[in-house]
Amino acid sequence: MADSVKLSKNLLRMKFMQRCLDADTKKLLEEEERRIISDEHWYLDLPELKARENVVVEEQSFVPCEELRFGRMSFRGFNPEVEKLMVLLNPRAEGEEEEDEEQRRKMQADVTDEEMAQRYQALVGSMKKKFAKKRERAAMDEDNGVAMETGTKRTFMKPQD
Amino acid sequence: MQVPELLQRVGQVLLPGDEFRLDQEDNISLTEVSRPSRAVCGPGLRRSGARLLVCKSGVLRHKAPNVFWIDSQQKRYVPAKGETVIGIVTAKAGDIFKVDVGGSEQASLSYLAFEGATKRNRPNVQVGDLVFAQFVVANKDMEPELVCMDSSGRANGMGVFGSGGLLFTVSLGLVRRLLSPLSELRSDLEQLFPCELVVGMNGRLWVRSCSVQQTLIVANLLQSSDSMTAPQRKELFRKVQQGAL
């Protein structure tokens, strides 16, 4: 019965027919469709474009070439705001940079490495306490000799008149 | 690479039409470590296919490692991206201001491109005001566009300025001489009297000093130092320092 009545391909491709198609016919139809699409596509018959690496970067401005400074300046404290900007925006000259380095070294000498280490050593205990759980904290306190105090129970002492 | 050929011509005068070939090595040598050296061609040089063309007359300059440009004298300003200029607001048109920067076309400046400006809080800019602004769009096919803040939204010295000062125009070469890192002109000026300068890459200078007289002196000195040698200028500055003060 099925062999005698053949449905046309166009009918099979319709949406409502998709449900009752079996896998083989579905694949066949898809292949044909793909073939039709690829046949209809056209392309230019050109030699392949070779992407050459760009070795030259174009720059329209003088500013990066000549390392020009920022365009606002103030001399002898006429406009303190602008003088602050000048320090901020202009790259330092080499001589100034050395001075800066010296200053930085001096500033670093304020707190020596040893002082720093000692300070952090003292901090280790308190930081540890902060992150410990309640029970652990109690244990830690006992280790530190706080247990001695807890032994003597505090009582209310009546004040004398 | 094209570098050796260009390096030979550094310091010489080149004319528009001179060209260099950008030859790439086709065969990679096995012994040498191949390092992709990128050349930067600044103003006055243009890349066209495999050629490097000179399009301004002037002296070829070089900066290590690989930057080349033509040092030329000109008075016409051509907007370039990233440069800061002094503009004059000529019109308010809805959301943008039109700004004259001395280029072939007026630049546009959005009212939102100021520090702290929002749709509700418009900046107070009037026609005729001076603005110190930076180009974000500048190419030969499009209208140049200015902003008065940097990428993080800070003004950093840009914006409306200019009360009690004097604006005048000098050549683009003088502007570059004023802004160069080791500028003698600037250090000479520094010794004169307290003053403030705004220098636009478009050749506009704005000066303000304690009094009108001093402002005029500084302006005249700067204008005349455009066509002076260094000793001449030093002499003049010394005279002014002694006489006029």
From TrEMBL, chain A:
The lineage of its organism: Eukaryota, Metazoa, Chordata, Craniata, Vertebrata. This is M-phase phosphoprotein 6. Residues 92-113, 135-161 are annotated as: Disordered. It comes from Salarias fasciatus (Jewelled blenny). GO terms for biological process: maturation of 5.8S rRNA.
UniProtKB/TrEMBL annotation, chain B:
One of its GO terms (molecular function) is RNA binding. GO terms for cellular component: cytoplasmic exosome (RNase complex); nuclear exosome (RNase complex); nucleolus. Transmembrane segments: none annotated. It holds the Pfam family RRP40_N_mamm. Belongs to the RRP40 family. It is found in: Cytoplasm; Nucleus, Nucleolus. Residues 12-66 form the Exosome complex component RRP40 N-terminal domain. This is Exosome complex component RRP40. Its main location: cytoplasm. The keyword rRNA processing applies. Residues 165-211 form the K Homology domain. The keyword Nucleus applies. Keywords: Cytoplasm, Exosome, Nucleus, RNA-binding, rRNA processing.
